Structures are given as structure tokens and as C-alpha cells.
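Colleagues,

For the teaching module next term, I've prepared a clean inverse folding example: a structure given as C-alpha cells, and then the sequence designed for it. I'd like students to try predicting residues themselves before seeing the answer, so please don't circulate the second half yet.
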């Protein structure tokens, strides 16, 4: 069973007493799903995981509940849980949500964006030019957007964005395999910083929305090619 082969060597008592055991399991499973160690559709056994971490099955159940809420696991009656499949429907739903929430966060952030944040965003964009691994690209991409939105100081909105982006990372790994899209995305990052420096909020939020939708469109198209039976939305988000 792949679950027992995960490199999850740190047990909860080794992670520090302040961290709840269920939280440690959530983090480990989420990371394994994002990185593809646990693949879509793979069943995750409660008893095996409890043994692997040396905790009770009740603690594992709590971890499962959290990951179901986040969309990483799918609960199936009388069958336990499995890694949630990748689907065009979900990819587009998250894209639409991002295209609504993230431009609003940037709009709120614009009046508070200072030179320090803008310089940091520009440096991250420059680092992205040099990044070669998928992990590095995705990490820098997240940091770039977080740097711009952080000035909004809207904790609830920023938490929503972080949750959606975390789940969306599974899908981003498809997008960054497309060299042409990566170059386009990078240019848009730089253009976005320039618009923020110029204080052109309307153009910046418009570009950001287009930037998000372009990635979503690519993902939906690729998912249709890989798993056409799950793709029930067209690239504009309209049911077929």
C-alpha cells in the first residue's frame, strides 16, 4: 500500500507538543496528495494510518474530516475515504472563485501597498525567471501573490485565498508543464507589478483576473484530454 511507503518519518510526538496530532497527519497527507505520492482515487485506510503514526483511529478520523472539507479527500459511504479525483469541474470552480476573490483582495491592498511590498514582489518575479523545478516555481508563485494581497489586511479573505490556492496546487502542476504558459504567466507577473507601482488599480485587477482565468482555461483543456469523462464544463464555465 503506497500510504505505508510515504516518507512521513516524523511522528506527532517528534513534531512538538504544541502541534495537535490530527494537524500533523493533515499536513503530512495533504503534502503527499499535492506532490502525487498519493494519487487520485487511491484509498486511504484509517487503521493503517493510525498504526503508521502511532495514534488512535479517532485522531485519524479528525484528520480525514479536515481533508474532506478542504477537498483533498472524498468520503464514500461504507467505503472510507479516497484521494479526491482531479476534475475539470473542480478546476474551473476554483478558477472562478479565485478570479472573484483575488482581484478584490488586490483592490483592497492597492492603497496600502508600499515600496517594500512592491520591491519584494519584483524580486520574487525575478527569482521565478531562474526557477527550474515545479516545486520552486509553485512556491515562488504563491509567495508573489501573497506579497501583493497581504497589504489588504483582510484576514478572512486572505485565509480563503490560501485554502483555495492550496488545493489548486494539485492542478497547477499540470499548468507549469506548459513552457509557453509559464513564460506568459511570468510576463503578466511583471506587468502586474508595474501597474501596482503606477497605482493603476483598475488595470491591475483586470490583468489579475485575466491571469487567473488563463491558467484555469489551460487546466480545463488539459483535464479534458486526460480525463474527458469528468470534464462537464466548457472553458468559459458553462455546462455542456
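(Answer key — instructors only)
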Amino acid at each position: 500500500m503506497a500510504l505505508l511507503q510515504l516518507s512521513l518519518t516524523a511522528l506527532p510526538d517528534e513534531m512538538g507538543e504544541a502541534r495537535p496530532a490530527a494537524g500533523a497527519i493533515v499536513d503530512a497527507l495533504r503534502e503527499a496528495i499535492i506532490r502525487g505520492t498519493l494519487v487520485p482515487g487511491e484509498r486511504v485506510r484509517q487503521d493503517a494510518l493510525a498504526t503508521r503514526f502511532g495514534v488512535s483511529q479517532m485522531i485519524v478520523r479528525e484528520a480525514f474530516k479536515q481533508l474532506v472539507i478542504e477537498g483533498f479527500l472524498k468520503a464514500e459511504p461504507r467505503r472510507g475515504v479516497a484521494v479526491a479525483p482531479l476534475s475539470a469541474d473542480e478546476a474551473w470552480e476554483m478558477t472562478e472563485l479565485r478570479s472573484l476573490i483575488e482581484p478584490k483582495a488586490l483592490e483592497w491592498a492597492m492603497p496600502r501597498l508600499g515600496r517594500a511590498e512592491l520591491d519584494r514582489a519584483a524580486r520574487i518575479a525575478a527569482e521565478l525567471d531562474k526557477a527550474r523545478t515545479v516545486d520552486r516555481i509553485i512556491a515562488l508563485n504563491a509567495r508573489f501573490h501573497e506579497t501583493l494581497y497581504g497589504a489588504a489586511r483582510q484576514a478572512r479573505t486572505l485565509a480563503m485565498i490560501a485554502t483555495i490556492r492550496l488545493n489548486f496546487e494539485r492542478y497547477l502542476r499540470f499548468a507549469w508543464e506548459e513552457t509557453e504558459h509559464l513564460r506568459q504567466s511570468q510576463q503578466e507577473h511583471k506587468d502586474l507589478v508595474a501597474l501596482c507601482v503606477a497605482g493603476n488599480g483598475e488595470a491591475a485587477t483586470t490583468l489579475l483576473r485575466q491571469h487567473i482565468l488563463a491558467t484555469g482555461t489551460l487546466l480545463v483543456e488539459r483535464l479534458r484530454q486526460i480525463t474527458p469523462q469528468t470534464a462537464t464544463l466548457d472553458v468559459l464555465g458553462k455546462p455542456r
